Amino acid sequence: MNNFITQGNQIVSFVLIVILLQACSSTPGHKYQSEETRQNLEELIKQAQQAPQSKKGPLLIQAAGLLVLEGRYEKSQELLIHVDQQRLTTLQMDDFWLYYGETLLALEANEASLNQLRSIAQISSKPVKWQIRYAQSLSDSYLANNNYFEAAKLRIGLEDLISAPEALAENNEKIWFALDQIETSFFPQLISDFNSRRVNGWLEIVQINKRWGYHPEKLVSKIDLWKKRYPLHPSTVNQPETLKKLAKAVEFKPSRIAVLLPLTGKLASIGQMVHDGIIAAHYQAQRASSAPLLSFYDTARSLSALTPYQQALKDGADFIVGPLTKENIDTILNQESLPTPLLALNRLDEQKYSHSEVFQFGLPIEDEAVQAAQHAFDKGYRKSVAFLPDNATGARAHKAFKTHFEQLGGELITVQTYKEAKLIKNNVQHMLGVDSSLRRKRSLQQLLGRNLEFDMRRRQDTDFIFLVASPGMGRRIKPFINYYFAHDLPVIATSSIFEGKRNPKTDLDLNGIEFPDIPLLLSQRPEYQQTRKAIAKSVPEALSARGRFFALGFDGYKILTQLSILQSFPEYRWTGLAGELGVDGEGLVHRYLTWAMFNKGIPHVTKERITKEPAKNKNQLSVSRAAGKTNYPSR
């Protein structure tokens, strides 16, 4: 027996020496590691080496606890398995169970960890700091064992023990995370009179978020009702990230909306189309008794956009829609502060301003280029060539497409630009690589002095062509692509390829080209078909390419009250005439479009986005004949 004890002491001493040596050169980077911790660990191990067997256990347990804090779980386990548990008091055993449970949890022995931690007996006899550590570890163990409600309840119980704001915020995040794992259908069973109000408050707020998360406008109202029931709930003081988003989500309720548009001059036709879309949305959405006053200001009549903007503010506008041109937007946003929310009807190329209640909604080529890259990648295409106009639009499309396609893992092999219609043939030859074949043929013919027959071949290193072109240029480009042996090469274009109207005879040359566009012009869903019938009676020109500006005005007016809410939930999509709309953290409104392909000269829908839970009501897309009315004050 004495020999066995001697061997046991030798093993413990050897383990202590190894850990002591490693403690002196411990790996940096652990979350809780500090010089003080290392010094304490070294001192404990030295004391344990020199202590009699009856006193080694508590010292080893303390050292194991420090090793856990340093993230050195295997070494902690090595110490704990050599502790003589029979020599420990009940309080010392509680330390043993805690540190061993934490070690097992870190080593993913989840069930064993829970058994160890649930063995602890005298929690209330321990210091508050120890009790906090115990509850956190037991909560984490419940979480690892998929017992989410128990994990959350332990964290909720800690709210009275934790004092540091950062620790409270972290604790609340973990409460939210645990409850968010529970299926929505289980919440009514968990909310009970047997719980404290604090527990029920947590359950209800998470349930509301899970139930109404795809209906932000309803979610905000439900949260407001919850706040009245639980005015002092801890989650409102140290808010989880989701609730912080909700706190920023404020529904705009303007009483006077000023619209800044070019209603005369060279941009008058576009400005008038946006104007008609706004008018249609205003009549369709509002009751006369609650409708905000709508005033239009002609930006083309002033040398500076600040003139109509400042006049609108003097007239009492509490929400600004517009202006339309990037130059005018830049002029207004260049001010130090803006007193009212603003929805610009275009998007700046460079986001150099930071105003909290400024949003930008336009029809940028970048959105379409990014979606073209995503659409191609989703179809399995990995290598691309691009055929783009030699202008600013082509350059912007090139940059957006290349960036997104390469981020996904694709490769843009080459970019061919074009400028003059008469050179399209040569440009297509160069893009497809057939011009080199022709040069070789001519060289051989000159060398041999006779005509040669040969098989012309196009490049074989690409999966598709990314194209930006007008309908007219597209009708020139696609036949040359077909002629030079690339009729089977997919062509993915932007909306500029489509005139907005179906012209099967004219557009036969566009067959095979796939492109995205607004659902107002493409979608075959019943609500859009009904909308087109209504528009055809009041604003028939909106069912052409200019209809994209009608949709811009219509959707811009419809979403203005929801902009802050949409920004707080960037994953949410609002369904409109211009597509499914989302707002990012910078206040940029992004469009997600419908896809179609020309077949027999007619675009046929190939892909249409459908939100998980559309937040629109039945009348959201209806457009009354009031779209033709213009009896609102204009300036």
What's the arrangement of strands in the largest beta sheet? 7-6-8-9-10-14-15
Could you describe the largest sheet, including whether it forms a barrel? 7 strands, mixed
Gyration radius from CA atoms, angstroms: 34 Å
First-residue to last-residue Cα separation? 104 Å
Work out the number of β strands: 15
The parts where pLDDT drops under 50 for at least 5 residues are 1-15, 17-33, 611-635
CATH architectural label of the domain at 2-201: Alpha Horseshoe
What does this structure look like?
The chain is an alpha/beta fold. Among the domains are: 2-201, Serine Threonine Protein Phosphatase 5, Tetratricopeptide repeat (Alpha Horseshoe), CATH 1.25.40; 256-267 and 286-358, Rossmann fold; 380-489, Rossmann fold. It is built from 26 helices and 15 strands. The strands form three sheets. Strands 7-6-8-9-10-14-15 form a seven-stranded mixed sheet, sandwiched between helices. It has a five-stranded parallel sheet with strand order 2-1-3-4-5, with helices on both faces. It has a three-stranded antiparallel sheet with strand order 11-12-13. α9 (165-180) packs across α11 (197-212) and α11 packs antiparallel against α12 (216-229). The longest helix is centred in the N-terminal third of the chain and has 23 residues, at 2-24. It starts with a helix and ends in a 28-residue tail after the last strand. Residues 1-15, 17-33 and 611-635 have low confidence and may be disordered.
